[in-house]
Specification:
alpha/beta; 55% helix; 25 helices
């Protein structure tokens, strides 16, 4: 029943309601015409009943006309009204048919067909309306013609089929309209569902969706605009374009949108919006150009905006955190630089003079032993300073790996030669063994030597008897590379598995007794691990308590056919071919005395200066073969002095080798020395062999020259 008494009846009732006054006028006119050939009483009666019926229809269709949805009872009431009034018009036609006049018969057929086709024109709204207003009245018409009196004795064999055919045409048209109505209703339903879905999204999205013209005129704003800005969509439609933009952003944003339309057609911009409550918020909007199919229609812009205040706050906090971190890193670097400088400066004197004293023949046996203890202890302290410095550089990523051709056996043999005396002193054997075909590789031999030095030194330290074996093994690796594995095996005290787990962490040793008995900081293996990983390798250890340990690392390095340079050898310098004029610039008296003591046996002519200004003055008075320049000094530092010397107006000042001799040994500090014009760098504490090597490398002895002032003149 609900399918028959559908919502279409309400639409039909609303349209019928609108036509009630016109139909009343038509009914009166038809009754007046009928009174010309029909009894007056019948015409008056028919007109009165029709007017009452139309009044009845007016009452039962009033709610539908107002757009209200009618219930089943009211719809049945209207269907009854429609059926009765349609049949009442058929009755008027029957009266004309029975009158026995030809003109009335034609009029009767006209009235009947008018009723049927009136029903057809409204049938698309309701199937029940078509049945009540057209089908039943049409069948009633055919029944009257077929079964009621035929005063004119007309040949019904022609009239009935033609009228039936007309009814069929009307029925087919009505069915087509009903089908079209059904399709229309289905399309409306889908459109309503789609609209509801889009509206649900638009109403619940926190992002603001907008459609506007290129000049910023608003066409659509999603309801979320109220939550985002505090303005309702209606308020913004009534305000000028870009009213809510921050004044600074209102200057450039409109032009940016025009540039987007003229260029890529899509852009994402960040700008500020002033909310209704006065708060300024950051917004990120993606603008997209929409071109209509109609070439005459202007292009439009679809924008999707979101509040990014939280992101901006996070960015600000991250930037502040980065600034603090960079400040902390800078403070750490400054502290490290100052700490290493302050430690190296006294160590320079302690290690230097203890080394000089050890070679003195005037010492007693006890004195010689005491000096050796001082020298060894200061060496351990220097090793600690160097370890802290190396680890800090590795942590800061300030260490770069070189890639040069090298012989994989060379670092192992060099370390064995360097530490052989230390091993022999403990009665240990120290051997190097090669396994596999050893071919040149491309890598950082210096870093490999550093790791090997730590491994072999530890092995000798923790091995009371037996020996230490270094094994170098090379196998093939994919991509024309070689897999280099170096193992250092000892017969020492060994380690438990739980100790190995933490062995490569910083400031970690097997246990506290190890540090007390053997010394060390626990940084060496951590530095080795960082160094090996920096070269793309892996590192590890195998051990058993009481049966020794094997420390190993493995690298995959490219093979190379380039010639391999030999391991650097420091040739001992016993004397110089000709006397050198040396300018020693050092503010600490004990360091000046140490250098003079170290170089005294070599017959050098040494002039001293206590600061950079004195050094510049000395260079203007006479020529020197080499300048040893400290960096941190009062009055004028070494970097400033070097620049001043290089700027002096004579050639010798620009070509005289200047060697930095300083406790500033960080990479950036060494770089600053070279940038200032220095030729070489020696770190404190000074190693006599390296000092002599540098002097030999940079010396260019010549015959006595005239003073620099005279040369400049």
């Amino acid at each position: 029943m609900s399918d028959l008494l559908d919502d279409g009846l309400d639409g039909l009732a609303a349209s019928v309601h609108r036509g009630v006054p016109l139909r009343m006028v038509i009914a009166v006119a038809v009754a007046a015409l009928g009174a010309m050939t029909l009894p007056l009483w019948f015409s008056a009666l028919w007109a009165a009943v029709t007017i009452l019926g139309e009044a009845w229809c007016y009452l039962v269709t009033r709610r539908q006309f107002k757009g209200e949805r009618a219930g089943t009872g009211l719809r049945l009431h209207y269907v009854a009204c429609l059926l009765i009034m349609s049949c009442w018009w058929i009755v008027f036609g029957a009266a004309l048919w029975w009158s026995g006049r030809v003109e009335n018969v034609a009029s009767a057929i006209g009235v009947w067909l008018a009723v049927v086709y009136h029903a057809q024109t409204h049938a698309y709204q309701s199937r029940m309306g078509m049945v009540a207003g057209g089908v039943i009245p049409g069948l009633m018409m055919l029944a009257i013609i077929a079964f009621s009196p035929n005063p004119l004795n007309l040949d019904l064999a022609l009239i009935l089929p033609l009228l039936a055919l007309g009814l069929l045409f009307a029925a087919d048209g009505a069915l087509q309209m009903i089908k079209a109505r059904r399709n229309f209703n289905e399309a409306q339903r889908k459109l309503a569902e789609s609209d509801a879905q889009y509206r649900m999204l638009a109403d619940n999205l926190t992002d603001v969706i907008a459609l506007s013209s290129l000049d910023g005129q608003r066409i659509y704003l999603s309801p979320s605009i109220a939550q985002a800005t505090g303005y309702t969509a209606q308020e913004l439609f009534e305000t000028p374009t870009y009213t809510y933009l921050h004044p600074e952003d209102a200057v450039w944003l409109p032009q940016a949108i025009l540039d987007m339309a003229a260029g890529p057609g899509k852009v994402t911009l960040q700008y500020r919006v002033v909310r209704k409550d006065g708060e300024t918020i950051w917004v990120e909007t993606t603008f997209c150009l929409v071109v209509n199919d109609d070439p005459d229609a202007p292009p439009q812009v679809v924008s999707v905006s979101r509040n990014i205040d939280a992101r901006k706050q996070m960015e600000t906090e991250l930037m502040e955190a980065r600034r603090r971190a960079e400040g902390a890193a800078a403070a750490k670097s400054d502290f490290l630089a100052n700490m290493t400088h302050e430690l190296r400066t006294p160590l320079n004197a302690i290690i230097g003079f203890s080394g000089v004293l050890r070679a003195s023949p005037r010492l007693t046996a006890d004195d010689s032993r005491h000096v050796a203890l001082i020298h060894d202890a200061s060496g351990s302290l220097l090793e600690l300073v160097n370890s802290v410095l190396d680890f800090s550089k590795l942590e800061a990523g300030a260490v770069e790996v070189e890639a040069r051709p090298f012989d994989p056996l060379a670092p192992a043999r060099a370390m064995a030669a360097l530490l052989s005396e230390q091993a022999q002193a403990k009665g240990l054997t120290l051997t190097v063994e090669a396994q596999g075909e050893i071919a040149p590789l491309l890598g950082d031999a210096g870093r490999i030597r550093q790791v090997l030095l730590n491994f072999v030194s530890n092995a000798i330290k923790f091995t009371p008897r037996g020996g230490v074996a270094v094994t170098v093994r090379q196998t093939a690796a994919p991509g024309d590379c070689g897999r280099l594995r170096i193992e250092v095996t000892d017969t020492g005290i060994g380690l438990r598995d739980d100790q190995i787990e933490h062995l490569f962490e910083r400031f970690t040793q097997a246990d506290a007794s190890v540090s007390r008995q053997y010394g060390g900081t626990g940084l060496g293996l951590a530095i080795c691990k960082r160094t090996v990983e920096l070269m793309g390798g892996v590192i590890g250890a195998n051990s058993s308590p009481g049966h020794g340990s094997t420390f190993w690392f493995e690298l995959v390095l490219p093979r190379t056919d380039e010639p391999v340079a030999g391991e650097p050898q420091i040739a001992p310098v016993e004397t110089f071919e000709q006397p050198l004029r040396l300018l020693l610039v050092e503010d600490v008296a004990v360091n000046r005395e140490l250098i003079q003591a170290l170089l005294g046996p070599f017959g050098l002519e040494i002039e001293t200066a206590e600061n950079g200004q004195e050094a510049v003055e000395a260079m203007t008075r006479r020529a020197f073969d080499i300048v040893l320049m400290d960096v941190q000094m009062p009055v004028m530092d070494g970097l400033t002095a070097t620049r001043a010397i290089r700027a002096l107006p004579f050639d010798r000042a620009r070509t005289t080798p200047i060697i930095a001799m300083t406790a500033n040994v960080l990479p950036e500090q060494v770089d600053r020395c070279h940038e200032a014009g220095m030729d070489d760098h020696l770190g404190k504490p000074i190693e006599p062999a390296k000092l002599l090597e540098a002097l030999a490398a940079w010396s260019s002895p010549r015959e006595d020259a005239e003073p620099a002032v005279e040369q400049a003149g």
